[in-house]
Every structure is written in C-alpha cells, then in structure tokens.
Amino acid sequence: MSMGGSLNAEHFDVVIIGAGLSGIGAGCHLTKRCPGKSFVILEGRDVTGGTWDLFRYPGIRSDSDMYTLGYAFRPWREAKAIAGGPAILNYVRETAAEYGVDRRIRFRHAVKRVSWSSRDAAWTVEAERGPEQEPARFTCNFLFTCTGYYDYDRGHSPEFPGAGRFAGPIVHPQQWPADLDYAGKRVVVIGSGATAVTLVPAMADAAAHVTMLQRSPTYVVSRPAEDQLANRLRRHLPARLAYGLTRWRNVLLTMFFYNLARRRPERFKQQVIGGVRRHLGRDYDVATHFTPSYNPWDQRLCLAPDADLFHAIKAGRASVATDGIETFTETGIKLRSGAELPADIIVTATGLNLKVLSGMEITVDGVRFEPSRAMSYKGMMYSDVPNLATAFGYTNASWTLKADLTCEYVCRLLRYMDRHGYAQCTPTRDPGVTEAPFLDFTSGYVQRAIQQLPKQGAKRPWRLHQNYAVDLLTLRFGRLNDGTLRFARRAA
Asked: How many domains does the chain have?
C-alpha cells in the first residue's frame, strides 16, 4: 500500500539516499559541479558516517589507505595512512560541514519505496520519518542511492550448535556492546576476514588471550600504518599536490599488484606467505594457518598494519586455530578435531549480509523492478531504469575511488541533460549482450547474495572493469550519448 496518498511532496532536483561516505561525497560533488541543482540527503539513522559510525568494535579501521579511501577533492592530512574508524568518521563529518552538505540532510528518514513516472519524468520517494514512522514524501528528477551494500540492521550470524549453552556473551561486531569488558578474559573470535584480523590484535592488548578460530585461512599482508613518503611530501609541498601525488602512486601500485596476482597467482601467493613466515618464523605452522586454498584476490586480502596481528601471535597474546566447530559448550567451543577452546567471550566475526539498494521497493511506471533481472550499466545504473544511479565501490581497491568517479559522472550527466533539454536518461539493454555475475568474488557474503545482485555484461558499457584507470577514462571523458544510454524530453 502506498503511504500518504494525498500527502504533499517536497520537490528537489536530486534526492540522495544515505549520508555515509558515498552520500556525503555525492552532496559535495553536486555542490561543486552543479551549484544550481537543489538536493536533499535522506538518512535512515540519526547521524552521518554510515559504516564509520555504525561499527564500534575495538580497533575498527579501514584496510584501504586514506589517500585513496579519502575524497579526490579533499586531502587527507593525518599522519596515519591506515586510519582508525573515529578518524575516518571525523574526516567525513568535517567534509560535510566544509561543503555545507550537513545542512541538507534529513535524519531518521528511512526510504521504503520509490516509484518512477515517465509521464512526469520524476521519482516519488516515500519514507518513514522518526520513531513514529510518520509518512514523508519527496519528488525528484534524479535519484542517487548511496546506501552501501550490506544490511545495517544485522550481520551474518550462522546458527552454531549449542550456542544457547555458552555461559558468556556472544557478540557480533556489527552490534558491539559499549559496556563489554574483555580485560583479562579469554576471547575466541570466529572468522578470518578483515574484521577478525582487526579485532584479534586490538583485543589482545587487554584480554588474557585471544584465539582467532577460522574454518580456512585468508591471505594476510602487512604494511606500515604510516606512509613516510606521503608525510614527507606533505611537509614540503602544498597539501592538494602532495595528496594527489600519493593518491596516484597508491592507485598505480594497487593496480600493479592486483594484476600481478591475477596473472601469476602462484608467484604472488608465495610472496604473501613468505611475508607471513618472515614475521612468525620458520617454526610457525604457516601452511595450516595462513595458506589459503584459493588464489589471491579470489577474495579480498586482509591487512595487518605494522604487522600487529603477527606481533600479537609471536608475543603469545593471540593464537590461530584452524578447525571446524562441533559445538559450543558452557565454557567455550569444542572443535571437530576433539580439541576445546576455553572462552569467556565469543565474537562471531562471520561477515555481512548483502542488501541490494537497501531493500527498498522500486517501481518503474507501475512495474516492480527486480535488481536480479537487470544488467548493471557502467557499474552504476540499471537497464531500463531511468534517472537512477548507485554509488558502488571497488572490490579490489578503495571504495571511494569508484564512488568519486560515479559522482563526477552523475554531475556530467545532469549538466548534459540540462544543455540538451532532456528530462530522462535510460540505459537500454541490448538483448545480445551475454550475462555474467555482477562480482567475480568467492567471499561468503558475495556468494550468499549473488542471486539477488544485478548482472554485468560481457562487453562495454555493461562490463565491470574493477580498474580505476579504465573507469577514469570512461566516466570522466567518455561519450555520454553512447547509443546505450537513451535520452528523452518531457512528454507533452
């Protein structure tokens, strides 16, 4: 049922959904590049920051450097390149304030439905406002969704046998209790992804002991938390120039190592494992605990800044167990091998639940839109859906690199439409284009949701390149009227 049938709607040129890293960036780009456009940002929570406010677990940080995770238009000025969550959150909020975007946000507006009318060349956006879930309605000419890729309400929590028997707290990192006291406690962290690799050394500083319990290993690489060259450049060059140079150096290095990993996986694998062995020594069982069965970049690599995970293991404050779980017990976890892990606290760092377009209902001229049946155009729009774009970052590089390019492209598109008198732009699917999965990634959170995601195509402009240099040329300089993106004027 549509809410508020006679409810008056506020109109904006652009409605942005989400006030996290991408949504704030979108607002800044519109402010800079399309100053005549009116826009509003609708945020379901009561604060900005998205991921960087939601997650509060110990050691929360990015596994991407801030010279590429930061916005292209606003330099990162802190000493640490691998920054903690609070520093990233502060950067996002300072950026919003600097560009006046913080004044354009409507908090506690959870968007539930959006509907496109070709007759009006407009979207109607229906939201629930505040704790009373009052109906709120907006209309706009262009809709820009910046809601991220996962379910904010709950993380992925498998049903573990015997979980109800465990006497201590069982915590998921996405809902970290502010009052959780783990000082002097035995902690088991289930998982081997980025969150677990972050949590283990952070908790090991105060816990009696932290065990990372993994079903199978992940590639873990170490790099310095501070970028010494970047800090030197910033001392001797203007901030924007120093930032730009470091940003491009890091982009090119990331591309080089990613391409090396895909072309010569065994060589790259031995380099990564060799690095682990140098940190942990020849006596450590690297083959069992840090040698995955898959090739590098079939899943995202995990980062240990300043080798913190390896130092915690070597100091005896942390350990790794590679085994399956038979059951939780009153005092810990019994493994399939028969061994038992004693625990006072269990942390289930078992991943995220993907949620396409934040789960909102979308209709186009009265027909329900199903993302899984659509094809992704340039990784940001959807076949046969007019005037809608989505910020979706890279899997093999920093999220913001692609989000920034997407924002630039949307601004180019809006200016182009204004110049030519167009009211509508729609990626039109070529039935001859072969479909492929949206993401070529074996990570559990992707595989659990792969059937819900749109498809990509085997050729441009439907193909996802996961390559910043290619996307830069395509999105910043490529033709807008490419024969696939169809433009139309307002109906008479």
From this structure: 2
